[in-house]
Amino acid sequence: MRNAEARISSVGVYGITVAAELVGVGEQTLRLYERKGLLTPSRTAGGTRRYSDDDLVIVRRVLELLEVGVNLVGIRHVLELEAENRDLRAEVDKLSS
DNA sequence: CTTCTAACA
DNA sequence: TGTTAGCA
To answer: Where is each HTH merR-type domain found (predicted)?
Structure first.
């Protein structure tokens, strides 16, 4: 089943230290990605960053694009296009059903 | 934990 | 340009 138990994407939250260790980058790097607009992690009332499982896959995509030679500004656009494409693909799926 | 500054490849 | 280290 595809309900809340199996599909945990934006619910699983991690601190910046554990999130950085899971993806293999430093904490400062994650803050830089957010500063550049690549990430938008949720925040607690105290201002602490909450990285969801969804955010982690984004960071991995960032690292993947970096190895290909895309800079952070370019990655930002790639991420936007991917999100837009994902939206359009979902609508096409709906129409072709 | 946060932001900022500075130095390095 | 991107990453890392140290300070407040």
So the answer is: 13-81
Distance CA A11, CA A29 (A): 22
Closest amino acid to nucleotide B1 (CA–C1'): A48
Q: Rounded to 5 degrees, what are φ and ψ at A32?
A: -65, -40
**CA–C1' distance A93–C3 (Å)?**
41
Q: Taking the CA atoms of chain A, what radius of gyration do you get in angstroms?
A: 15
* Across all strands, nucleotide nearest A62 (CA–C1'): C2
Give the three-state DSSP class for A94: helix
Nearest nucleotide (CA of A28 to C1')? C4
Whole-model pTM over 0.85:
yes
The string of pLDDT tens digits covering residues A15-32 is 999 999 999 999 999 999
Q: Give kind and range of the element (H or E) at residue A67.
A: helix A53-68
